[in-house]
Amino acid sequence: MKVELRGITKRFPGVVACDGVDLSVDAGEVHALLGENGAGKSTLMNILFGLYRPDEGEILLDGEPLAAHSPADAIAAGVGMVHQHFMLVPVFTVAENVMLGVEPTGPLGQLDRAEARRRVVELSRSYGLAVDPDATVEDLPVGVQQRVEILKALYRDARCLILDEPTAVLTPTEIDELMGIIRQLAEGGRSIIFISHKLREVTAVANQITVLRGGRVVGSTTPADADEQALASMMVGREVQLVVDKAPAEPGDPVLEVEDLVVADDRGHRVVDGVSFDVRAGEILAVAGVQGNGQTELVEAICGMRVAESGTVRLAGDDVTGAGPDDLFAAGLAHVPEDRQRDGLIGTFAVSANMVLNQVRNAPFARGLRLNRKAVRQHAARLVQEFDVRTPSVDTAASTLSGGNQQKVIVAREFFHANKLLVLSQPTRGLDVGSIQYIHRQVVAKRDEGIAVLLNSSELDEVLALADRIAVIYRGRLVGVVDRGDANRELIGLLMAGAVAEAAEVEPVEEEEVTVT
Amino acid sequence: MTTATDAPTEPPAEPVADLGPSAEGPGARVLAWLRAAGNALLIPALALITALAIGGLVIIFTTPDTLNEWSSFFADPGGALRASWDVVYQAYHALWESSLGSPRALGRTLVEATPLALTGLSVALAFRAGLFNIGAAGQLVIGATCAGWVGFTWDLPAPIHVPLAVAAGFAGGAAWGSIAGVLKARTGAHEVITTIMLNYIAYYLLNYALRSDAFQPAGRDDLISKAVRDSARLPEYSLGELTVHAGMFLAIAAAVIVWWLLERSTVGFRLKAVGANPFASRYAGMSVGAMYVLAMLLAGGLAGLGGTVNILGRPSFSLTSQYYNFLGFDGIAVALLARANPIGVLGAAFLFGVLRSGSTGMQAATSTPVDIIIVIQALIILFVAAPALVRAIYRIKAGRGTGATFTTSWGT
Description:
The complex is a heterodimer.
Chain A lengths: L2 E10 L2 E11 L4 E5 L6 H8 L7 E6 L2 E3 L4 H6 L2 E4 L11 H6 L13 H14 L15 H14 L4 E5 L7 H16 L3 E6 L2 H7 L2 E6 L2 E6 L6 H9 L17 E11 L5 E11 L3 E5 L6 H8 L7 E6 L2 E2 L5 H6 L2 E4 L3 H5 L6 H5 L10 E2 L2 E2 L1 H14 L16 H15 L3 E5 L7 H16 L3 E6 L2 H7 L2 E6 L2 E7 L5 H8 L2 H6 L13
Parallel strand pairs in A: 3-8, 3-9, 6-7, 7-8, 13-20, 13-21, 16-19, 19-20
Antiparallel strand pairs in A: 1-2, 1-4, 4-5, 9-10, 11-12, 11-14, 14-15, 17-18, 21-22
Helix pairs in contact in A: 14-15
Chain B lengths: L25 H37 L1 H8 L5 H23 L3 H26 L7 H18 L4 H30 L3 H21 L24 E4 L2 E4 L1 H18 L1 H11 L1 H6 L4 H25 L12 H13 L4 H24 L5 H15 L1 H8 L18
Antiparallel strand pairs in B: 1-2
């Protein structure tokens, strides 16, 4: 289906989100919409999907004007959208989720589950979307949940599919699979609009690229005509350095020593199985692994958020196994959590309050029982400046900031007091190029101050850009610790997939408890 | 969950005074404060007006004489309207007269409002910590029982006896409230369930106690306790005809302390943090469980004080079996109307005191039943709980920060 957006303008109070945007996507084309957070990508797509009405401009589907007043209209016209945050009912099965809202019914109006299931199986077979139709959605990994979302759109006969930041939550392997699916869908004659700010993916999969900045189209190109560097500059509006400048590490004494650590997840499965490593002062050790291989639990155990079954953790020589977050904070550990909105911030609290969340009982913020609000504000004002947090004021509620600025609030708070060990979990997930670049520089700066940095990331690019050493975790075990100098994308990718591990390992990994993917 | 209070951000109101060149003057600060106060009061005020209007309709259609006039509406439309106006006017005039019309009435209103303010504070404080304290009623009963027992059993000089009885009331309520807090912290048991059940236990514990020799006056077998000794009664203060007891000052002091605790102390910061996002609070090293226990302990203590001022001050000095029921639940309504703001609780409690003390006068002056007041109270709460409804009626555009529906996050 050919999709044309002509002169789309959408104003919100105080801001023009889209300013006369033209976009044309042919049938069978993968069209990437590239831009930083706030560039207007999502607004534009929400207009196409009927969630917003444009103030000006028109939408043509195969030449026919579309007046979508609601997503229902858009879906009926053949537009499907896979949102960044999935819209699935966790306790329903895959088939139930797919048919929800358009359930096939029998002669008496009863639900025809068998028919729904049959069509789901048929669809997933013809597009290579391997999904068990009877699995409960909450038990599925994120990548498979996304396939369910795609199936939902296909089930409703979407001829134009919008994918909003589809790779933000995926692992490298899942991303590769998704790219394959996208290509196949396009070959089938569907038009695909792919929203992203990840340049590698865009250049890999798109036929056409449109770059948005500040609500306007600032460039239209093809992967053949523009490399990643050029696209990044177009997106940001200035020259961007994609590589992190960093001198070779000068590691000192071990700061974090982990020995034979065994950790179970919430369901009691052993997901970290005898892991030992150390991180020295002035180096960045990255734990790389496909999501769900135990790295989350490993980090939680180190940071006092989860009790280890056995093994020891030492911080600067002291045994801190089983210590709580409060004690670890006092011992010099700082931690940027994986889920920033849930674990890192209190959205309804002001930026200033979030900046002192873990220090509120310490001087100078506490004077006896009294909260020294002046000190809190001054501290926050300083950090806002130092870490370039874009906020109207320190009294602004944290939830109103953009994702990148929310992350900068957390980074500011944690980096400020990190004096021995800094633990970073997915520090740049979902952030735009500018913010990623900024946070990466800060991490390297911390390292150069002599802080030990433990980086937990499933972004291979990030691992390769920052790490001095890379520890690859697979099924709860470290399958290799590689110096950055000896590492390359292929080797780490193979280790993450467990390929080398299985060849190298003497004892076979026990299959029974840990399940991956 | 959201803390849908009048001040969504923290620290509240005062604009960026410490941030260098852009600092605004005190005038702007006062203006901002006034605007915030106006925003916070708009919905409750409109809710009150709407509730009174609907209450007026109910009065018209529950008064037999007026209904007769309406049956001859087409013959004499003016008569029907006049009769309706008269009956509503008389009812509300009597309501006004017997609640605020004279110093004596005002005193009665303040005495009625006092325990409501304390139970309102109890619910508001717990709510700010993310807990829905349905148990103010039970905590109030236990507090009143403890304070009453100290009041009629011991024989001490007043300067010792009064504080001791008050302390006992606070301690009893606090202990009762913290049971729910500990259950939540240790086992995750939902406080709505546990506090409701603890209410029943408290009522029947009191009933049981009222049958015992320790409580029952000699020679009686109905469910009423001995009267609190004079030495434990709250001192009364009079200004002309206006008489209040010390409980009112206790309630005002409690409101100020709760406000200070929530808005100016590190304890309040942590209570609110846990209420707003327990996950992030735990990551920041706060003990979520300890905060739940503390919040329920303080909330229970405040509700206990509500019972205490009721037993040690007017109107009654004896414990009875059903007397306290409504006070605890009206505390929820007061906190809701005040949007969990401690100072707002005082105003909301006063409004409820007006309605309560005015209702008897209204019934005496007109044939309007007291129950109408309950209907009006319920309507006020209904409109406050559904601000979107009030906005729709008065075509107010949703303002920033006041858009959250207060009740949606209760009980999660």
